[in-house]
Design a protein that fits this description.
The chain contains eight helices and no strands. With 217 residues, it is mainly alpha-helical.
């Protein structure tokens, strides 16, 4: 169930905000959506292992399920702790990496990144990573993409700054995540509870299987 939940959230993020995956120049395939899909799939496979072990009352399978699930649980806790400890460093790295990605905007072979920035700036009504001047370094001129314009039209990015969005896209995306923070925490707690129950039940069945085997031995 925990694996299904994580996989579901990953698919939802991929469908609704999947364009963020192509904004990074160094890690184009690494995104929250892809990470959740991968983790959810792994947990589902491990869950199936536990189900088979429970049905067959197999001690090796139950013990393997317990160890793998415990390892994943600790890795999740460690990841959350590291995220909060190094949050400022992560912010600086993310902004720097996104600014590097701006240099690839409109270049050959980077259609995904170009479309992603156009969609993000249009949907979130923002311009650039930290502000609209980020684009000045890309164009070597005081202009921005047309997706930065308050009212879209061809070559509107050549007009004066008063016709452009001024909000930074990085902060807008962070605000969107903060707005959904309560739902994300509820989901995380439910997932953790499900995993803890899985650990308890698998170890209980393992101990019961040991007692039965000892009794008949």
């Amino acid at each position: 169930l925990g694996g299904c939940g994580i996989l579901g959230v990953g698919v939802w993020l991929s469908v609704t905000q999947g364009n963020f995956a192509t904004l990074s120049s160094s890690l184009p395939s690494l995104s929250a959506a892809n990470l959740l899909i991968a983790v959810g799939t792994i947990i589902m496979v491990i869950g199936c292992l536990g189900c088979v072990g429970a049905v067959k009352e197999s001690r090796p399978l139950l013990l393997t399920f317990f160890i793998l699930l415990l390892l994943i649980f600790f890795l999740e806790i460690l990841s959350i702790m590291l995220f909060f400890i190094y949050q400022d460093e992560i912010d600086h790295y993310a902004q720097r990496d996104l600014k590097k990605g701006l240099q690839l905007f409109g270049t050959e072979g980077n259609v995904g990144l170009t479309n992603a920035w156009m969609i993000v700036q249009t949907d979130f009504r923002c311009c650039g990573v930290t502000n609209h001047t980020d684009w000045f370094e890309v164009y070597n001129a005081s202009r921005v993409p047309d997706s930065c314009c308050l009212e879209y039209s061809d070559n509107c990015g050549l007009d004066n700054p008063g016709t452009w969005w001024t909000a930074p896209c990085y902060e807008r995306v962070k605000d969107w995540l903060n707005e959904n923070l309560v739902a994300l925490w509820i989901f995380a707690l439910c997932t953790a509870l499900t995993q803890i129950l899985g650990l308890v039940f698998s170890m209980t069945m393992f101990c019961q299987a040991v007692k039965v085997e000892t009794f008949y031995a």
